[in-house]
Each structure stands twice: as C-alpha cells, then as structure tokens.
Amino acid sequence: MDVREFVKPKMNPNIPQLSPGDTVRVSVKTVEGDKERVQHFQGMVIGMRKGVDGGSFTVRRVSYGIGVERTFPFQSASVQNVDVLRHGQTRRAKLYYMRRLSAKRARLKERREKATEQAGRPEEAQSSE
What we know:
With 129 residues, the chain is mostly beta strands. The protein is 12% helix and 38% strand. A five-stranded antiparallel sheet has the order 4-3-2-1-5, with no helix packed on it.
C-alpha cells in the first residue's frame, strides 16, 4: 500500500512553473496579532523538492550582506502570488554552491526561451534563399 493513495496534495494555482535559477518575487500573507498583511520576498530559487506532500521550493536572497533563505511549500495557502522576474540558465538541479559566492559571482546568465529561437530560424532560412 502506498501513501500516495491516501494523500492528494492540492497545489496552489498562484504558483507558476518554476525551475532552479529563476529570480522570483513571492507574496506571502503574514498574520501579526489580529492584523494581516502581504510580505514580499524576492530572490533566486536555489532548490526544489518534490514529494508525496506536494514538495517545496527554496528562495535565497542577500540582504545587507547576510544570506537569507526561505522555503515555501507548493500547496501553501499563505502564498498569495509568485512572479517570475528572470529565468536563469543553470546546469544543476540544486544551486547550493551559490551560498559561498559573493554578489557578482553569484549572477546567472539569462535563459533564452526556445519559442523565440524557433520563431527566428525560419525567417533566416527564407532570407538566405
């Protein structure tokens, strides 16, 4: 008997498709006493974990020279919105090596979208004929 038969995680529809290296802005609803507010956390996705419980993703940022990491579950109702600001080009699934890099060395190249590459090729082929 498998646990997956009993547990069906309900994914948050406000979280788009993410991948390691993406720069995201996560809007999280925080409750302080009897007040609620939306808090934004912007940084780079350094790892994603998938599992029976739905999984989670870890976002890292450097604030005043101190590295801050926060892990958000994919099925969390407190995550209001996730905006993908940049798609970083990576060759690893876990970017834990970013923890020991300084600010300039921790930058990633922007990933080019395949749809724009495919759209550009037929025009070049037609013009060369």
